[in-house]
Every structure is written in C-alpha cells, then in structure tokens.
C-alpha cells in the first residue's frame, strides 16, 4: 500500500506522522517528496549511500546554424527563449524541458544539454529516499518524478509530501492508495485542511485526518470533519514535551514505545480505508 | 549575468517601485510567518499587505475588509484536441514528454504542462492551447491598509506566476505608503523565489528545532543566491535554547542579524483561535518583542539604503 501524508498548511506535523509510521512498520519505504525542504532524514537518520544528480534537458542554440528567426521563442510557452538583436538568449532556470523549441526550429540549430537541478538520495536498500532541489531553482517537479520512478512495489510506501496544494503535491500523491491529511486545531489549520480535502477529492484518493497538537476543544476541525463525513483517524495531543523532543529530531515513538502501536494502528486504519 | 535572470525575477523588479518591501519567509512551514505579519499589520503605520502564500493563504483569515478588485487569473495553458479533426495518428502522444496524452489520444489535464509541443507536430492542426484559470486574485481595503492576496486553484500549476500577480496588483492601489509587508510561502521553490524577487529585505521566521535550523540554512543560501539582505527572527525561542544558541551563532557567522526572539506563548494560539492577531489579544511580552523587531528592522533596512 502507498500512503501519502500531506497537509496544506506547513508545520502541522507531516514529517512527524510520516516518519513515525515508517519506524512503526516492520518494513516499508519512506520517500521525502518535500524536495524544497526535506526533513525526514533528521528524524530517520538514514545512512545515505547514493546521491544521484537529477538532470533535465535544456535547449542549446548552435549560433552558426541559427538564423535568428525567433520561431523557438514563439513556440516556447514559458518565455525561456528570447531573441535579442538576432541572437537567442536562453533562461535555463524557467525551462519546462518540453522540447517545443527543438520542433519549432527550422534550421535544426537547437540541441539539448543536461542541466542538474537537484539530487535524489537513498540508503543502501532504498528504504529511505529523499529529493533535494538545488538552491535558486524554481522547478521541483522533475525531482519528484525521479523519486516516483524508484518506488518499491513489494512493501508499504510512505510519501512525505510538500506543503501547499499546487502541482508539486498533485505529483507527490499521484498513484497513492490513501492520503493522510495532517492538521492542527487553529483557524489556519482548518482553512488549509479544506484545501487539502478538495485536492484529494479531486484526484480521487480515499483519505482520513490526523489531528495534531490536539487540545481539549478542537471544535472547528471536528465540526468540519463531521459536516464533510471525514474520519479523524488519530489525535496527537498538544504537548510541550513532544515539541521539545521534536526540536531535537526525536519522534514520539523513540521515547515512548506506545506510540509505535498507535502509528501501526493508524496504518491499519488507512489500509481498511482503502478497502472500504 | 543579466542573461541568466529568469523571467519571474525580471517581472518582480518592475513592481512596487518607491516602496520598501519586506518579505517574510521561513523555509519550513508553520514557524509563525503569518502570526508575525498579522501582528506587524496591527503595529506598523502607512503600509500595504500582500499574502504570497497562494497555495494556502492564511492572512485573509484574520485580516479582512472591503473588496476593491477581484479577478480570475489565467496563469497556465492546456492543450485541447478537436476530435472531429484528429486522425489519431499518435504523433502528439509520441512527442509529449509529460505523458499527458492517453492511448485514445485524449489530453490528461493534470499532466498537461501547456507547452504546446503537440500543437507543433499535429499534421492536421487538431490541437490548440487554451488558457486555463489557475486562481483568483483579490485586493481588499482593510483598517490595516490595502491588502492583496490570491488563492491558487486546487492542484494548479504556476504558483510563482500568481505570486507575481499578487505583487503587481498592489501597484494600482499605491497611496504614498512607505512599506509593503509580504507574507511569503514556505519552501525555497518558485513561489518563494517570486515572493522575494526585488524586495529590499527578507525576514526568515524560524524556530529552534533541527528541522528549523536545516531549513534556515537553505533560506540563507537562497537569499545569498539572489543577493537580498536577510534578517532572522527566532520564534518559540525558549522551546530549545540550545538550538536557539546554535542558530544565533550560525546567523552571526553568516552575517545575517537576528532581529528578535519571540517566546513560546500559549496566548498566541488562543488569540489566533479567536481570529485575533497576537498583539491584539496576546501577552505584553510578545507585543513588546514584536515592536522591538520592527524597530530593529526599520533601522537595518534604512541603513541598507544609505550604504
């Protein structure tokens, strides 16, 4: 089974939940898809053995062949190419690697070259994987695609997703069997839970909610879930102790083994959610 | 090198001239960007506000007012195949690098990047690109100043472009303000780059956790990459004083001033639960610290202009 952990709002506890499930299962693969700010390694402390560059093809213009006609710039929907005084300028960072410029060039003056935008890293048996976007690069989806190519099919897989609800999250949850939406009982948490809920409904994946930093009264989250027929699968209480351990890179299950049981049960509930 | 400057960056520089713009970012989410910006919205006079976290805009939850302008935003394109013209030759499918054309030669919308490569190879011109709505922008007049924000459609592409639009929208409503306070997105990718492009200073709101420290390091690299002055605010500093000390040392070694440390205070959560900013309902200690943060920030930013 493949489970994605997402949240809309950042800092609600995606990594805590995803990494806790990973340590509570006998065997599984953990994949950190938050390639802008990957934090799973801080908690799971994997022994990284491999670091592979993620390369994307970007256009290279052969000046001798180029006539300066500008068809490439017209074809490009992302303003990656511009013709200035008969010369083609390429803004590589914003290239979407689609190859339209190659097709459009009547002179065959455009070829492609590889450009590194980040890395994919993993431990020896590939049960821990993370992507890292190079600083200054705007486009992270190719790294998520690369991670997705290395998904194991013979064990449970846990995806730690990026925050938000844009294309990076869509690519992260694609192909998953179940989504866990992590939220917190603040107006921000509820607001962003609604966004995450709309996203998973649109993609059509069954889901449930994990309420983190739960207080005595979590009215608005419970009300929202009740109204929309969404199950709250687990509550993690608000606790300064959990926060203090978290700050040192420790998961709840590491200092209290009871949490392992709880996260295993969470996984089982998700399994039942897929079947149901 | 000017030739290497991406479009989003060039566009950002065009907007909001004459105002001092400060972007609040964090790397890691949930460290307190919106909490700080909403508090400053209460304290700072003569400013405009922009929420550039278009994936999950939260500032509008506690700051609202009268809508001045509201528009759908068309920030992406998508291919459409006319089935009455299509020969099902499959050339488009072979060409598409995103797997966005199915076996039956139909577009799979969420995989389509709108690049138009398919339109170039179709022998019978059966495919065209159409603009698609990716979000909605809004400018409101609030008791705390003009406020520009937007909401990205669920799962849409192009959050960076929508952020640029939010910042551009401010331009039309300028009225001799001195400041623009920008609530940024988390991460370091396109939405963040679009939030900090061309600003006068970036404030990284961080928290003393291993994750927070790791993410702060990457934000610092990002600010350096784009050569924007960075200041750091440590939120919930007393959660782990050891890491706070580490952070302060790290900031010092990298030449970015720590302009404030906000204590962990349950009154902040209580205030937010009542849809109030922390300075409206929070403790005196927190309010005084946020005031001091703004004083230090203005001094620092003004001195940047002089050097």
Task: Describe this entry's structure for a reader.
The complex is a heterodimer of chains A (276) and B (307). Chain A has eleven helices and eleven strands. In chain A, 35% of the residues lie in helices and 27% in strands. The mean pLDDT of chain A is 96. With 276 residues, chain A is an alpha/beta fold. In chain A, helix 1 (14-24) crosses helix 11 and helix 5 (141-148) runs parallel beside helix 6. Chain A has helices at 14-24, 40-44, 71-75, 100-104, 141-148, 167-173, 187-203, 219-227, 240-247, 252-255, 258-275, and strands at 2-6, 29-32, 48-61, 81-84, 87-90, 110-123, 128-133, 157-160, 178-183, 207-214, 232-237. Chain A has two domains: 2-47 and 124-275, 3-Layer(aba) Sandwich (Rossmann fold); 56-115, 2-Layer Sandwich (Alpha-Beta Plaits). Chain B has 307 residues and is of the alpha/beta class. Chain B has two domains: 2-74 and 136-306, P-loop containing nucleotide triphosphate hydrolases (Rossmann fold, 3-Layer(aba) Sandwich), CATH 3.40.50.300; 76-132, Alpha-Beta Plaits (2-Layer Sandwich). Chain B has twelve helices and eleven strands. Chain B has helices at 7-14, 33-43, 59-62, 91-95, 117-121, 159-171, 190-196, 210-225, 241-253, 266-273, 278-281, 284-306; strands spanning 20-25, 47-51, 66-73, 76-81, 127-132, 135-142, 145-152, 179-183, 201-206, 230-235, 258-262. In chain B, the strands form two sheets. A nine-stranded mixed β-sheet of chain B has the order 3-6-7-2-8-1-9-10-11, sandwiched between helices. The two termini of chain B are 23 Å apart.
What characteristics describe this protein?
heterodimer, A: 276 residues, alpha/beta, Rossmann fold, Alpha-Beta Plaits, 2 domains, nine-stranded mixed beta sheet, two-stranded antiparallel ribbon, 11 helices, 35% helix, elongated, B: 307 residues, two-stranded antiparallel sheet, 12 helices, 11 strands, disordered N terminus
């Amino acid at each position: 089974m493949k489970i994605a952990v997402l949240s809309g709002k950042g800092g609600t506890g995606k990594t805590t939940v995803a990494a806790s499930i990973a340590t509570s299962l006998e065997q599984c693969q953990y994949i950190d898809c938050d390639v802008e700010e990957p934090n799973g390694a801080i908690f799971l402390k994997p022994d990284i053995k491999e670091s592979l560059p993620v390369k994307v093809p970007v256009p290279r213009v052969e000046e001798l062949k180029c006539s300066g006609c500008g068809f490439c710039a017209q074809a490009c929907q992302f303003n990656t190419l511009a013709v200035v005084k008969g010369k083609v300028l390429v803004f590589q960072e914003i290239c979407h690697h689609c190859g339209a410029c190659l097709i459009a060039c009547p002179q065959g003056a455009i070829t492609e070259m590889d450009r590194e935008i980040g890395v994919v890293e993993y431990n020896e048996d590939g049960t821990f994987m993370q992507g890292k976007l190079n600083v200054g690069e705007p486009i992270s989806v190719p790294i998520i695609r690369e991670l997705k190519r290395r998904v194991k099919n013979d064990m449970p897989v846990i995806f730690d997703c990026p925050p938000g609800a844009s294309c990076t999250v869509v690519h992260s949850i694609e192909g998953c069997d179940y989504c866990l939406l992590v939220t917190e009982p603040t107006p921000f948490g509820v607001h962003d839970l609604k966004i995450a809920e709309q996203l998973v409904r649109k993609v059509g994946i069954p889901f449930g909610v994990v309420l983190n930093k739960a207080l005595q009264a979590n009215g608005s989250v419970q009300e929202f879930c009740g109204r929309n027929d969404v199950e709250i699968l687990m509550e993690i209480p608000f606790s300064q102790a959990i926060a203090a351990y978290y700050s040192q890179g420790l998961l709840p299950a590491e200092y209290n083994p009871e949490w392992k049981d709880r996260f295993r049960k969470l996984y089982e509930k998700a399994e039942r959610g897929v079947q149901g | 090198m000017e030739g290497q400057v991406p479009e989003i960056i060039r566009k950002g520089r065009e907007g909001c001239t004459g105002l001092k713009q400060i972007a609040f970012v964090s790397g890691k989410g949930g460290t307190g960007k919106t909490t700080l910006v909403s508090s400053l919205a209460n304290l700072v006079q003569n400013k405009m506000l922009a929420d550039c976290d278009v994936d999950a805009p939260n500032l509008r939850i506690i700051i609202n007012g009268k809508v001045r302008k509201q528009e759908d935003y068309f920030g992406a394109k998508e291919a459409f195949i006319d089935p009455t013209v299509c020969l099902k030759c499959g050339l488009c499918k072979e060409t598409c690098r995103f797997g966005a054309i199915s076996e039956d030669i139909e577009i799979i919308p969420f995989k389509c990047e709108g690049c138009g490569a398919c339109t170039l190879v179709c022998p019978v011109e059966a495919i065209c690109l159409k603009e698609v709505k990716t979000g909605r922008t809004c400018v409101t007049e609030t008791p705390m100043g003009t406020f520009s924000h937007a909401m990205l459609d669920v799962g849409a592409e192009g959050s960076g472009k929508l952020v640029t639009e939010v910042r551009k929208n401010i331009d039309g409503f300028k009225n001799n303000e001195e400041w623009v306070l920008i609530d940024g997105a988390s991460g370091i990718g396109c939405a963040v780059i679009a939030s900090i492009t061309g600003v006068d200073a970036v404030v990284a709101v961080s928290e003393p956790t291993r994750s927070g420290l790791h993410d702060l390091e990457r934000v610092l690299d990002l600010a350096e990459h784009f050569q924007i002055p960075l200041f750091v605010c440590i939120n919930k500093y007393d959660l782990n004083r050891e890491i706070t000390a580490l952070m302060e040392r790290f900031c010092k070694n990298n030449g970015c001033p720590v302009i404030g440390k906000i204590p962990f205070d349950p009154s902040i959560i209580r205030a937010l639960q009542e849809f109030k900013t922390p300075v409206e309902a929070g403790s005196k200690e927190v309010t005084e610290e946020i005031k001091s943060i703004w004083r230090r920030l203005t001094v620092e930013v003004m001195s940047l202009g002089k050097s």
